[in-house]
Write a structure and sequence with these properties.
The structure is a single chain. By secondary structure, this protein is mainly beta. The protein is built from no helices and 14 strands. The strands form five sheets. It has a four-stranded antiparallel β-sheet with strand order 5-4-7-8, with no helix packed on it. A three-stranded mixed β-sheet has the order 6-3-9, with no helix packed on it. A three-stranded antiparallel β-sheet has the order 12-11-14, with no helix packed on it. The chain starts with 9 loop residues before the first strand and ends with a strand.
């Protein structure tokens, strides 16, 4: 029951701090009702709806990827939430309706390619006044290398490396007959696979 209101006056209901795991709701402006024409009065009820924005770090098969360091930054570059991906979707903290943010993978889970940033806007109420939770998937992929001979048989003992466009080594390993998940790759970047020692 809101105290201190005067009939006919307009007020703004604000969420100062959202509950854990919820998006900060947009303000609601309302006018305290007066008596109608026949002099009767009715109670007013205002509902402020909170929504959730969560994200999953998944592989190409849709399974949650654990161990990636993720952050969300606002338009000014301020980090509003940071966490390590786990077995379940993460409820993003510090968001406000109507604002745009960028989801970034800071450190990849072992053996995965670093995903490109995802920009998203937190939606508010639709034209019918309804709000919907939002879910964002950031998908990680794997690039692996197998060293084979001309008979398609796996070769052991060769030293291979991957270098970026500037010639910096991003991963180096000795083949063991199995596929090697290349580390240190970023989506959209071009690399060169080199055999250092056959």
């Amino acid at each position: 029951k809101v105290k201190g209101l005067v009939e006919g006056q307009t007020y703004t209901l604000q969420e100062v701090e959202p509950a854990e795991g919820y998006v900060k709701s947009a303000d609601i402006q309302f006018t305290a009702s007066s008596a109608d024409k026949d002099g009767s009065k009715v109670d007013q009820h205002i509902t402020m709806i909170d929504k959730i924005v969560d994200m999953s770090k998944i592989d190409v098969g849709g399974k949650e990827v654990e161990g990636a360091e993720i952050q969300v930054v606002d338009k000014e570059g301020n980090v509003v939430d940071k966490w390590t991906s786990g077995k379940e979707a993460h409820k993003i903290k510090g968001l406000e309706e109507g604002k745009t943010y960028t989801l970034q993978e800071v450190v990849t889970a072992d053996g995965y390619v670093k995903a490109t940033d995802i920009e998203f806007t937190v939606t508010g109420a639709n034209s019918e006044g309804k709000k919907e939770n939002q879910h964002i998937d950031m998908t990680d992929k794997i690039v692996d290398v197998v060293k084979n001979d001309v008979n398609d048989k796996a070769v052991k003992g060769a030293t291979l490396q991957v270098v970026d466009k500037d010639g910096a080594v991003v991963d180096k390993w000795t083949t063991d007959g199995k596929a090697h998940k290349v580390k240190g790759l970023v989506e959209g970047q071009t690399y060169t696979l080199q055999e250092v020692e056959p």
